[in-house]
Design goal:
The protein is α/β, with parallel strands linked by helices. Helices cover about 35% and strands about 20% of the residues. It folds into three domains: about 230 residues, 4-Layer Sandwich (Glutamine Phosphoribosylpyrophosphate, subunit 1, domain 1); about 190 residues, Glucose-6-phosphate isomerase like protein, domain 1 (Rossmann fold); about 140 residues, Rossmann fold (3-Layer(aba) Sandwich), CATH 3.40.50.10490. It is built from 17 helices and 24 strands. The chain is globular. The structure holds 5-amino-5-deoxy-1-O-phosphono-D-mannitol (M6R).
């Protein structure tokens, strides 16, 4: 195996974390480690002259414990430098274990929880085999983890998982294997995969692969699955960034989301009707989609559904029982907060449906029913096409619950074709005018009402994460209760307007802002007197959240580019948040 494989693989995974990176190569009976701060995508393999090796580990980090620096980058070594570990997740009880190891003489170089794992394995290795030491260490780690481990004098790589994803790629060459936290890392080389499940350990040695279940305490057999993923979808093509490529793909992705097996939609709608309490959960953008869902079900299906962020769901655990339904929304299907909420629900016998993009994800494999959104690989950290596809599925579900599956489908199909007409170069140029005008502001605000209130919150996330401008979303009616004090001369405020019962009120709210000096950017089907700048969207009724968020996505992207930020890899963030 060459360093090229490793580095190319890491480049494909960088969207999960990109503040620093590191590589470890087994060369004879030594392990050579190279670490750097920054993005691995910036390095040129040939220039650095990495060693060749058939056993190697790589990692790109999203800092949790300890600053972004070379020492804290993975892989981490044990005290005697014989054992090397790369770790995803959080070792929750690492401080207690660290203290015990320190008493035994271990000295730590980094501030990370991950380094403690290498030392812990080494400590066990004093009296146990390499494999046994990893099993013992795994048993002591509280929290979610995926670890990959090498030892200087062992011709093998061992990996273990609990809660964080690990997937094995079975190479085309006999005896070639890849282990990664996501398939794109090795998709160029193989589409044959084996999913490691929680509490399982894999050992790869001289082309032989073995699996062990730490709960059953026995060797197990695993199935090879051929996955249907196109390596091409992972490329930017003619676009300068994945974010704009994915925004433009919304011309097709909506149609793909709705033109899928109607039986699944009917089944989930049936579960909602029969459930005694339905909860929608998600985090970040997926959470805002869930909030829109609450409004959609109230408006269209006349049904009250509860929304909770994944990280807050535990507060409702006393209300969960076998008649409850949980609908989890996630692009990656690996978000730790959402997965933990699912675990809480499952422990209470709750049925779980997942609206998810990555069909091979932990969430998709844990849920009782999966509605795949079919948006294709979404690589930019800022979610765009997955968002609108998730919104489309929830709209369809709400219509189906009310017996209007055909009406819902027709509405969404019309929306998809109107979006196709809407996003063209002239539209982008028009939005660029306002992007240039506001690119240096310190703060901006977004208001919406009804279905478009959660979209105002989502718009704020989009603008924050890629433009780094302070952006906040509010319910139009809430302004006068406090936020209006933030408005001064020329403060930009985006008003999200839908041609529904909220229109008059949101325009009044915009007028209140304008009267205090605010600069109103209206996203609306029609131009209104109160707007200083108008971005036209089609009048699509209940799908206004879908059409209204797209111009904000474009604006956020353009602001990122104008402010010389990387829209695909915004600072401090990661695409898939696999820690709590
Ligand atoms: O993969 P998920 O949809 O579960 O991710 C949830 C959030 O981390 C995600 O939506 C995040 O807020 C996005 N970066 C927003 O664009």
């Amino acid at each position: 195996m060459s360093s090229t494989y490793l580095i190319e693989g890491l480049k494909c995974l960088e969207y999960r974390g990109y503040d620093s990176w590191g590589l470890a190569f087994k060369i004879g009976n030594n392990i050579e480690i190279k670490k750097e701060v920054g993005k691995i995508s910036d390095i040129q393999i040939k220039k650095l002259g990495f060693p060749e090796s058939h056993l190697a580990i790589g990692h790109s980090r999203w800092a949790t414990h300890g600053k972004v620096n070379k020492t804290n980058a993975h892989p981490h070594s044990s005290e005697n430098n014989e054992i090397v570990v790369a770790h995803n997740g959080i070792f929750e009880n690492y401080l207690e274990v660290k203290k015990v190891l320190q008493k035994k003489g271990h000295k730590f170089l980094s501030e990370t929880d991950s380094e403690v794992i290498a030392h812990l394995i080494e400590e066990h290795n004093k009296s146990h085999s390499f494999e046994e030491s990893i099993k013992l260490a795994a048993g002591e780690i509280e929290g979610r983890y995926a670890i990959v481990v090498m030892k200087n004098d062992e011709n093998k790589i061992i990996a273990a998982r609990k809660g964080s994803p690990l997937i094995i790629g079975v190479g085309k060459n006999q005896d070639e294997y890849f282990i990664a936290s996501d398939i794109p890392a090795f998709l160029k080389h193989t589409n044959k995969v084996i999913y490691l499940d929680d509490n399982q350990i894999v050992t790869i040695e001289n082309g032989k692969i073995d699996f062990y279940d730490t709960v059953r305490r026995e060797k197990i057999a695993k199935r090879i699955i051929e996955i249907d993923l196109d390596a091409e979808t992972a490329e930017k093509g003619e676009f300068p960034h994945f974010m704009i490529k994915e925004i433009m793909e919304q011309k097709d992705t909506l149609a793909r989301a709705i033109n899928q097996d109607p039986a699944i939609i009917e089944k989930v709608a049936g579960e909602i009707k029969n459930a005694f309490g339905t909860y929608l959960i998600g985090c970040g953008t997926a959470g805002k989609v869930g909030m829109v869902g609450e409004y959609l079900f109230a408006k269209i299906a006349k049904k009250h559904i509860n929304f909770s962020f994944g990280s807050e769901f535990a507060n409702y655990k006393d209300f969960l029982n076998k008649k409850t339904l949980l609908i989890a929304i996630s692009q990656s299907g690996e978000t730790a907060d959402t997965l933990e909420a699912i675990e809480i629900a499952k422990a209470k016998g709750v049925k779980v449906a997942a609206i998810v993009n990555v069909e091979s994800s932990t969430m998709a494999r844990t849920a009782d029913i999966v509605i795949p959104i079919k948006a294709g690989l979404e690589k930019a950290v800022a979610s765009t096409k997955a968002t609108t596809s998730q919104l489309a599925i929830l709209t369809l579900l709400a219509y189906t619950c009310d017996g209007g599956v055909k009406t819902g489908k027709q509405l969404l199909a019309d929306t998809a074709s109107q979006i196709n007409d809407m996003i063209n170069p002239r539209y982008e140029e028009h939005i660029m005018k306002i992007a240039k005008k506001i690119s240096n502001v310190e703060s901006m605000y977004i208001i919406g009402r009804g279905l478009n209130y959660p979209i105002a919150l989502e718009a704020a996330i989009k603008l924050q994460e890629v433009s780094y401008i302070h952006a906040e979303g509010f319910a139009g009616g809430e302004l006068k209760h406090g936020p209006l004090a933030l408005i001064s001369q020329n403060t930009p405020v985006i008003a999200l307007v839908a041609n529904d019962n909220t229109k008059k009120d949101i325009l009044n709210n915009a007028a209140e802002i304008k009267a205090r000096g605010g600069y109103i950017i209206g996203i609306a089907p029609e131009n209104e007197d109160v707007f200083d700048f108008w971005i036209k969207v089609p009048d699509t009724g209940d799908t206004s959240p879908i059409v209204n968020i797209i111009p904000v996505q474009i604006l956020a992207y353009q602001l990122a580019v104008l402010r010389q930020n990387d829209p695909d890899k915004p600072r401090n963030l990661a695409k898939s948040v696999t820690v709590k």
